[in-house]
Design brief:
Helix content is 7%, strand content 42%. The mean pLDDT is 87. By secondary structure, the chain is mainly beta.
Length: 181
Amino acid sequence: ETLYVTSTKALSIWDISGANAENPKQLGTFTLDVEWENEEVPTNGKILGISGTEGCRDVMVLIESIGCLSIYDVSNPAAPRFIKSVAGAGEHTSACALECTWFYGSSGAITDARDPAQAEVVGNWREELESQGASGGCHHQREIAPGIMLGSCQPMVLFSLRAEHGASPTQPKLIATPEGR
């Protein structure tokens, strides 16, 4: 197993499998300049996203937006590689879905990362769910099954990205809230 850890200084990648579980072995590191560590680093072991509400990895983007989702290639844990910062996608937390081809930020940004080098914000999942009756702020979201997301919102939301539910990655469908919707 592989553990991905961020701090305000670096992305560190550790082998925590087998005998290394009690004494992890560092596989690689990448120097960062981010505002804080991420609470849960979204990755599929190939692509990884680091979300920040202030600042971006590349200066050009910093001028355009205060927050970015920075995307890294971590397919070789010994040599992680920066791919791109996506302006306007930097939120308190981000989660990836559908094998990290899409990222969903806690404030609502939907980032299309099917081609990570061309990743861009393409919508807002919170606005879409609000149009379906959901409301309230969100702290974090997580894909709990392929294309099914659980949002730690006020109140909690369960939403789908699956076509079988009349949804898509850019047009999520609200499945349930604690109020029984």
